[in-house]
Amino acid sequence: DIQLTQSPSFLSASVGDRVTITCRASQGISSYLAWYQQKPGKAPKLLIYAASTLQSGVPSRFSGSGSGTEFTLTISSLQPEDFATYYCQQLNSYPPITFGQGTKLEIK
Amino acid sequence: EVQLVESGGGVVRPGGSLRLSCAASGFTFDDYGMSWVRQAPGKGLEWVSGINWNGGSTGYADSVKGRFTISRDNAKNSLYLQMNSLRAEDTALYHCARRGLGLSPYYYYMDVWGKGTTVTVSS
């Protein structure tokens, strides 16, 4: 199975900061990657699919890039509502679908 | 409003069975593949199973293969997960989720999620 490793696992940042989360795949997955945001007690929310396509309704401060084995999620200017846990997900080797271990973004 | 509502969770003893249901509304259910994703307490997301629009193609995580069965009833706009031979490690919040609109795995991301139903396996 394809493994996804996110870095960092924990990130402390301030409102207005630019932050980047990296997701590395154990083998090439083309652009078969999605990103999700999850807040405590809530279901995950799709942010980006196909590595760089912004889901409808998601603010433009979120962006995704990459292909093959290395991907990034960037938030250009952190807002208070962005503090959450972020997961990447690969779809290339279905089944199974796998998720990264998550990156918890906390307020500094 | 597009909505997914799960039900059927509960407390069950190891080796027992449960059937989860997911009621879909606000969209044309049989246009979409569906998935089950679980989250153990304090842990990350784990994909469990997926099914295509007509039930003709299914997939499972190795951790549940042979024990869980996914199915759907398009006439009832409902998705199901039959869980047998339950183990303590199956304890989790189970979400149903809608896949993106498309036939290839490129679209197997999850664009709509339910709030989940809790399964606890304990003696």
Task: Give me some keywords for this one.
heterodimer, A: 108 residues, mainly beta, four-stranded antiparallel beta sheet, B: mainly beta, seven-stranded mixed beta sheet, globular
Helix content of chain B: under 10%
Number of helices of chain B: 0
- Distance between the ends of chain B: 40 Å
Share in β-strands of chain B: over 45%
- CA radius of gyration of chain B is 14 Å
What's the overall geometry of chain A? Answer: globular
User: Structural class of the helix and strand makeup of chain B?
Assistant: mainly beta
pLDDT average of chain B, as an integer?
A: 97
- Uncertain residue ranges of chain B: none
Q: Mean pLDDT of chain A, as a whole number?
A: 97
Order of helices and strands of chain B: EEEEEEEEEEE
The biggest sheet of chain B amounts to: 7 strands, mixed
Oligomer: heterodimer
Tell me which protein chains meet in the greatest interface and how many residues each side has. Answer: A-B, 27 and 23 residues
How much of the sequence lies in strands of chain A comes to over 45%
The helix content of chain A is under 10%
Helical segment tally of chain A?
0
User: Cα distance, first to last residue of chain A?
Assistant: 36 Å
